[in-house]
Amino acid sequence: MSHTAHIRSHRKPRRSASTLAVRAGVAGGVLSTLAVAGASGSANAAEPVTQTLELPTLTADLAAQAAQSADATEQAAANYQLQAERDAAAAKAAKKAEADLADAKKKAAEAKKKAEEEARREAAARASRTAERTTLSASADTGTGTVLGDSGTGTGVGTGTDTGASTATGSAATIVNFVRAQVGKAYVPGATGPSAYDCSGLVQTAFRQINVSLPRVSQDQSTAGTQVSLSNLQPGDILYWGSAGSAYHVGVYVGGGMFVGAQNSSTGVVERPLSYDPPTGAVRVL
């Protein structure tokens, strides 16, 4: 028997080829992974990846463009403001024009109404004068109302019992003498003497000679005294044309079928017979 028969062998048992192959594969895979990881780590360590945000550089061109943009914005704002002001002005002007148009229409309507009223008054006055002429003509044809004129003879328009200016006395004579002294002077609307008169201005100034204050206009003078008949006139009576309270013309009866009045700008102050333009009525102040 051998002396080594009971000594255990120091050799490791043989492994199967398949086991060795699996282990070799696993080891290879691990080594490969480590190699890759190492290589990747080395690469990352050698070349770190950084991300840089680049800002634009403000060059001269960009500065100029920015300035132009700012100017354009400012100009646009100014244009908007100007347009707003123009719109406001246009609206204000339109409102004023509308108000002016309404005012003009109102004035035109008032003027038309006044003209129509004046035309009616004139028509009434013409009708009244026509009727008066017819009456006076009829009286003259029948021989009534014969009066003495300023020359002392002659046939005039019938005026009741008046025998002429010579019958005027006292205050009436003062008025008659004054108005006759104004004959030939000019007719000027609104004038009260001494070189020119309108109809009511002459009458007012005449009565002022005897300290009698009369209203200024014909309408008021036609109601300033007591209404008297045209067939019973006396020197110094105020004659009026139109209706009492709305007369458009006045004069002074001077006797003898005559009156003195500031007629118009063509004739001025004249003395005429009543038949020249028969009055509508008369008032007596004295």
Topology:
Blueprint: H1 17-46, H2 60-141, H3 170-181, E1 186-187, E2 196-197, H4 199-208, H5 218-221, E3 226-228, E4 238-241, E5 249-255, E6 258-264, E7 268-273, E8 281-284
Parallel strand pairs: 1-2
Antiparallel strand pairs: 3-8, 4-5, 4-8, 5-6, 6-7
Helix pairs in contact: 3-4
What does this structure look like?
It is a single chain. The chain is built from five helices and eight strands, in the order αααββααββββββ. It has 286 residues and is of the alpha+beta class. The chain has a domain at 123-284: Alpha-Beta Complex (endopeptidase fold (from Nostoc punctiforme)). A hairpin with a 7-residue loop joins strand 4 (238-241) and strand 5. Helix 3 (170-181) packs across helix 4. Residues 134-161 have low confidence and may be disordered.
Fraction of residues in helix: 40-55%
Class of secondary structure makeup: alpha+beta
CATH class of the domain at 123-284: Alpha Beta
Low-confidence regions: 134-161
Strand element count: 8
Strand content bin: 5-15%
What is the CATH H-level superfamily of the domain at 123-284? endopeptidase domain like (from Nostoc punctiforme)
Q: Give the rounded overall mean pLDDT.
A: 76
The general outline is rod-shaped
How many whole angstroms does the radius of gyration measure?
A: 63 Å
**Distance separating the two termini:** 201 Å
Total DSSP helices? 5
By CATH, the architecture of the domain at 123-284 is named: Alpha-Beta Complex
The CATH topology name of the domain at 123-284 reads endopeptidase fold (from Nostoc punctiforme)
Strand order of the largest sheet: 3-8-4-5-6-7
Secondary-structure element pattern, one letter each: HHHEEHHEEEEEE
The description of the largest β-sheet is: 6 strands, antiparallel
